[in-house]
Predict the 3D structure of the following.
Amino acid sequence: MFTDINEQIINLKDKIRKKEKYERQLKDYDSERESIERRLLDLRKRVETEERDVEKLERLSLTNFFATVTGKKDEKLSKEKEEAVVARHQLEKVERTKKEIDEEISELIKKLDSVKFAEQAYQDILLEKESLIKSTDTVYTEEVFALSEKEGLLKAYVKEVEEAIKVGEQVQVALSNAISDLEKAESWGTLDMFGGGTVSGLVKHQHMDQAEHHLHQAQKRMREFQKELVDVNERTDLTMDISGLLVFADFFFDGFFMDFIVQGKITESLKQTKDQYRNVAQIINQLDVEYRTNSEELQTVQQKKQRIVEGL
């Protein structure tokens, strides 16, 4: 009877913490979705404006005639097309991010549904626990249940920290891949500037494309990482710098394609990516310490409870 109720207490504590975590994450994602929707609205207007400017220049008109005669039309048209391509590219990226956030929200709603009765079930088991304590003469019974409560909280927290570490490591992998491709793009870009020809230019852009892909993966994982860290931060005295995660994911990534148009920006993009990698590594190191400390405390609680139960 003791063992059965103890296990139920531990499992329900875990479910309650998950429910609280999912609710916080859902609220955070809802806020992000509102922000993304506003950005999408602005970007769609920008794309329409840029593409309209290109159409105007391509149409035959008196203004275009004089621009052609003076040799400025091709230059202006090229600039407008470039701006239209950049705007369209940014729109596609933000639309993809919006889709990913929608998917995360749908998944969280499903997870919440699976634990929606956890609190009521916990109250029910507390009543059962009280009845058992009253019907048992031993002075250790209440202490066993108190230790089970603590065990449940610690076990759930350790699991959350472990999950945060795993997501952080996925961010590191994506950033590491991006760094590798950025370094290659930088090297081929330098060769290209010194007359490397078509091949060096092509290889440089291939690495740029790959770097952008990896940065998008990092962006997606960073959102997950930030959500995990918000929950961990609320339950600990750790002072982790997580504010820069989404700033990097949003603003740096938004300007990434534009930056690549100018060769000199590759170096700055590489520096920012390396800085972010170090920031993530530092956070993971803090989480590792937190994981070990709480795992040791959990083990101590479990051993103490086991000794009491064996003596009953």
Confidence is low (pLDDT under 50) at residues 191-199.
